[in-house]
Amino acid sequence: MNKKNDLDLENLDQIMDLVGELLINKSRLETLETFREEGKDVLSQLDRITAELHDKVMKVRMVSLTNIFQEFDEIIENNEKEINLVLEGQEIKVDRAMINKLADPLTNLLKSLTNNIEKEEIRKNMGKDRKGKVSVRAHKTGNEVIIEFEDDGKQINLDELEEKIVINNFVSKEELKKMSIEEKYNLLLKDNISAEKLLDDIDKKITEIKKAKEIIERLNGKLYLELSENQNFKIVITIPLKFAITEALMVKIDGDLFAIPLEMVSETKRISNSEIKKVKNKDVINYRENTIPLIDSYDFLDFKKQENESSDSEIEVVIVNSGKKSAALRVDELLNQQDIVVKSLGDLLSSTKNIAGATIIGDGEIALIMDVRDIA
User: Fold this and answer.
1) Is-contact 20 341, C-beta < 8 A?
2) What SS3 class is residue 334?
3) What's the order of all strands across the beta sheet hosting 333-341?
4) Burial status of residue 88 (CB atoms within 10 A of its CB: 0-12, 13-18, 19 or more)
5) Could you tell me the residue range of the domain that residue 287 belongs to?
6) Read out DSSP for 168-184?
7) Which of 192, 319, 223, 316 is CA-nearest to residue 267?
8) CA 154, CA 232: separation in Å to the nearest integer?
9) Distance (Å, whole) CA 111 – CA 244
């Protein structure tokens, strides 16, 4: 992006911070008993102004993916191979700060995919089309944008992958048998697994995917591999539409407040203990004609469970979505929905399990934001 846009973004960031401070202080006023009784009209006006101001700032911050996708055309034009590039969803808008941070990893990812395309004579001998093909498709779902990369170059030999996984003791034969093809592919993206030891021919591609994954996860996004309709593996990237301010469900766990981003929440409900079943020694419940795992928030956050567990006949759960999967998260108490200002904690909680950041709520208390992307 040019210098003018960078300067604009710096000012927009400062305005967004001010909107966040306004939101926090509005929430604090709502908690004051005296003001809540006597200042209902003022609170109503303040709520409307804050919402409108946030909406206007976000409209200025939102830019289309064209800013990144137009660079993809140049990469293909400068490539010595003949490659057909399919682009979809360029018109989708995301936060300008997100665009700036995504440009390099996505561009490097595309370069890696084009390098993965075989040369014309090799493709001809393999019975493939003379021209290679790379597809980049974006679509919006809820408050997230999904970007998919797929190429028709060298693909993973599953038999070879399984053999080398076992040889290198990454996973046992017994565990491997229980895994789906997609789960086996996603082993390649684990931090403790080296692509070089598994796939000599496309290790550079996997290395570039892992680099992109690391950056995208720092943006509170997610990257994983899944099978395409052509039974090739494709790269799926999920990113939030916007930064800074979002809606969240507030819950209480072990006496502390936590926020769950609302775009990850399907619904909340109370279930009876009799509805909890066991499958392969793990708790599950039936939800909309499907069986989904029941995750205890204490286990999810690595909290020590109190020995005197509650004997209540019903429990509170949050149904959360992660990609195509759903899970029920058991919490101590369901509270309310509210707008929160997302604050990054940098390296402060980098080693803390399943925490994405923090927020300040109305009474000045800090609540941690739960990262439920890998819950299912």
Assistant:
1) yes
2) strand
3) 333-341, 245-253, 256-261, 366-370, 355-360
4) middle
5) 245-370
6) TTSS-HHHHHHS-HHHH
7) 319
8) 9
9) 31
| Integer Cα distance of 259 and 137 in angstroms | 31
Q: Is residue 160 assigned to a domain?
A: no
The answer to the question of residue 178 being in a domain is no
Give, for 185, the enclosing helix (H) or strand (E): helix 181-186
User: Are the CB atoms for 125 and 228 separated by under 8 Å?
Assistant: no
- The amino acid that residue 311 corresponds to is S
Q: Which two tokens stand for residue 25?
A: 């202080």
Q: How confident is the model at residue 167 (pLDDT cuts 50, 70, 90)?
A: confident
Distance between CA 167 and CA 165 in Å, rounded?
Answer: 6
Q: Is residue 167 part of a domain?
A: no
**338 in the same domain as 359:** yes
Q: Are residues 235 and 253 in the same domain?
A: no
Structure-block tokens of residue 61? 């911050």
Query: Could you read off the pLDDT of 10-31 as tens digits, one per residue?
Result: 777 788 888 888 887 877 777 7
Q: What is the DSSP letter of 153?
A: S
Domain shared by 33 and 130, yes or no: no
pLDDT above 60: residue 296? yes
- Per-residue model confidence (pLDDT) at position 247: 83
Please report which confidence band the pLDDT of residue 87 belongs to, taking 50, 70 and 90 as the band edges.
very high
Identify the domain boundary among 240, 258, 289. Answer: 240
Gap between the Cα atoms of 294 and 326, Å rounded: 10
- The CATH number assigned to the domain holding 35 equals 1.10.287.560
Among 127, 125, 135, 130, smallest CA distance to 232 is for 135
Q: Domain check: are 306 and 250 in the same one?
A: yes
Tell me what pLDDT residue 7 has.
46
How many residues can be counted in the chain? 376
* Same domain? 15 vs 93: no
